[in-house]
Each structure stands twice: as structure tokens, then as C-alpha cells.
Amino acid sequence: MREIVLKKFFEGEADSETLASDLAGTIETSGTSSHYRIEDMDGEFEITGKHLVSLCDAVIEGKLDPSQLETIGFCLVASDAFHWDTDVGDGEIIAQTCFDWSEPRINFALTLDNVKKFRERLIIGKNVFVTLNNHGELVTKLGSLHRVAMV
């Protein structure tokens, strides 16, 4: 994966197919370890919620596989070139989304339904993965597991 291709996708200069092709072969797995082959770009680029929404849209439209968000999330988290400000606007949601994508085994599975929720969370700025049940208890949905806590 080349960071410049992801940047060009965000800027509208590369399409989903180009990005998908560039992502192919990025992760090399050996046993329980994974190695990401990422080519750094020169300069910096500020990520906005709209950029991540465009990735969600590409998944929803079937142009990217949901699993490819793991590679993109890892790239964004590990990169020295991509950044966002968690103290301004939607920066905290951007950070949480990138971290969620980068480790779906710990956070949320990268399914089409969850990608739609990520998209909604990026747009409305609220965690749509959390709901209250009929007893007023906070329920955080993690795939087939549920955690319940009193509010």
C-alpha cells in the first residue's frame, strides 16, 4: 500500500478500484504475526470525517471489501503523514474509527452492517454502537457479545 494512493483517493484523484488494487498484498501473515507493507509519502495530510465517510461509501457500494478497512485503519494510525486533531470538531470520532478499523478482532467486526454504523457515527458524531435496553441499562454491542452496565 502506498500512502500517496490513499491521499489521492481522499482528494478525488484516485478511484475506489485504484485504491483496492493498491491495497492488495499489503498484509503478510506468518503464524500469529502480521507485517504491513506500507510505502510512506512525503508531506502531511489532515484526515476529516468526510474522508472516512468516502471509504464507508466505497464499501457500501461494493467497490472495497469491508476487510480492507483494517489495512487502511492500520495505515492511518501508524502513519507519520496522516493526522487529525482530537481536540477539534470530529477529531475524536476520526481517531476512534481509525483505531476500530485497525483492530477488528478487539473492536467491531468489519461487516457491511458495521460499516454502515461507522458511516452514521462519522456523520452524526455519536456512538451508534451503544444503546439502552428496556431496563435503562447501557448495552455496548460487540459482534455477538454484549456488555451491560447500569446507567
Molecular structure report:
There is one protein chain. This protein is of the alpha+beta class and 151 residues long. It has one domain (3-126). Helix content is 43%, strand content 18%. It contains six helices and seven strands, in the order H-H-E-E-E-H-H-E-H-H-E-E-E. The strands form three sheets. The chain has a three-stranded antiparallel sheet with strand order 5-6-7, with no helix packed on it. A hairpin with a 4-residue loop joins strand 5 and strand 6. Helix 3 packs antiparallel against helix 6 (112-124) and helix 4 (68-78) packs across helix 5. The longest helix is centred in the C-terminal third of the chain and has 13 residues, at 112-124. The model is unreliable at 142-151 (pLDDT under 50).
Round the mean pLDDT to the nearest integer and report it. Answer: 87
Count every beta strand, where a strand is a DSSP E run of 2 or more residues.
7
* Spatial strand sequence of the major β-sheet: 5-6-7
The first-to-last residue Cα distance is 43 Å
Q: Give the helix proportion (percent range).
A: 40-55%
Radius of gyration, CA atoms, in whole angstroms: 16 Å
Shape: globular
User: What proportion strand?
Assistant: 15-25%
DSSP summary: helix tally: 6
How many domain regions? Answer: 1
Largest sheet: 3 strands, antiparallel
Poorly predicted regions: 142-151
List the main descriptive attributes of the protein structure presented here.
43% helix; 151 residues; alpha+beta; 7 strands
